[in-house]
Design brief:
mainly alpha; 62% helix; 10k-s Protein, Hypothetical Protein A, Chain A; 7 helices; 0% strand
């Protein structure tokens, strides 16, 4: 099976399939979670309800933090995932307008509000 997955004949076909699945004008808009979906699963996490979606939500938050940290968000060096997700969860609960935004934007807003980066001298 492994030989088939990595054969030279299979890789171009797999690449074409992936491009077909993820290409297109509206495909991206439906692919990402909205703030409301993220809030739903973070609420499940806060209530201690284990699920695959909760794990995905935690991974989603982690991925956005890893991407934005030190660029847009300057989280404390010793911050833990639990605190980060709590900041996002509380922000989403207090800002219902975030429900319609893509989840990554809602996370960025929440963490940027909690841990903004200091402005540099030349960037006033």
């Amino acid at each position: 099976m492994t030989k088939l997955l990595f054969s030279r004949r299979f890789l171009p076909a797999a690449s074409l399939l992936l491009c077909t699945l993820f290409a297109g004008g509206n495909a991206r808009a439906d692919y990402y979670w909205k703030g409301s979906t993220l809030l739903q699963h973070l609420d499940e996490e806060a209530r201690g309800v284990p699920s695959f979606e909760v794990a995905v939500a935690l991974g989603y938050v982690t991925g956005v933090v890893d991407t934005l940290d030190s660029l847009v968000v300057c989280s404390p060096p010793d911050v833990k995932l639990r605190e980060t997700t709590r900041v996002v969860y509380d922000y989403l609960k207090g800002h219902p307008q975030m429900a319609t935004l893509p989840a990554h934007r809602a996370i960025a807003e929440a963490l940027g509000d909690a841990w903004p980066c200091a402005k540099k001298e030349g960037n006033k």
